[in-house]
Amino acid sequence: MEVINAIGRRKAAVARVYISQGKGNITVNKKDYKEFFPVDQLQYIVKQPMELLKVSENYDIKANLAGGGIKGQAEALRLAITRALIKINEEDKPVLRESGFVTRDSRVVERKKPGQKKARKKFQFSKR
């Protein structure tokens, strides 16, 4: 099997993933994923699509992550892994879609507008 690549995005985070046949190693920015994501919840998010399909021991994953925060990066990585697994086996798509891993979460921070305190919050109005 050749190397399969895919991209996942979430908020400002971008994950580029390269999947090859292997023993289940996940490397993120040249570190082990458990070192990169020290929180158990984020490790769980990253492993979700592979655990669902029961293929976590079959593939090695190398990922490059950039931008955003740690949670956004974990979710971007999950989407990238999902897309790569679909490229490997198209029949897995309905199972992954049912769990909500195929849909890209497009919510991003709204920009700050000029003349306002934040995106929606205004400066306090004073009549006098």
CA-based gyration radius: 18 Å
Q: What is the count of β-strands? A: 5
Structural class: alpha+beta
Can you tell me the overall shape?
Answer: elongated
Average residue pLDDT = 94
Percent of residues in helices comes to: 25-40%
Poorly predicted ranges (pLDDT <50, ≥5 residues)? none
Folded structure, characterized:
This protein has 128 residues and is of the alpha+beta class. The chain has one domain: 2-Layer Sandwich (Ribosomal Protein S5, domain 2), CATH 3.30.230. It is 34% helix and 23% strand. The protein has four helices and five strands, in the order E-E-E-E-H-H-E-H-H. The mean pLDDT is 94.
Q: TL;DR?
A:
This protein is α+β, with helices and mostly antiparallel strands. The chain has 4 helices and 5 strands.
Essential attributes:
128 residues; alpha+beta; Ribosomal Protein S5, domain 2; 5-stranded mixed beta sheet; 4 helices; 5 strands
Question: What's the SSE blueprint?
Answer:
Layout: E1 4-10, E2 13-21, E3 26-28, E4 31-32, H1 33-36, H2 40-53, E5 59-66, H3 70-88, H4 93-98
Parallel strand pairs: 3-5
Antiparallel strand pairs: 1-2, 2-5, 3-4
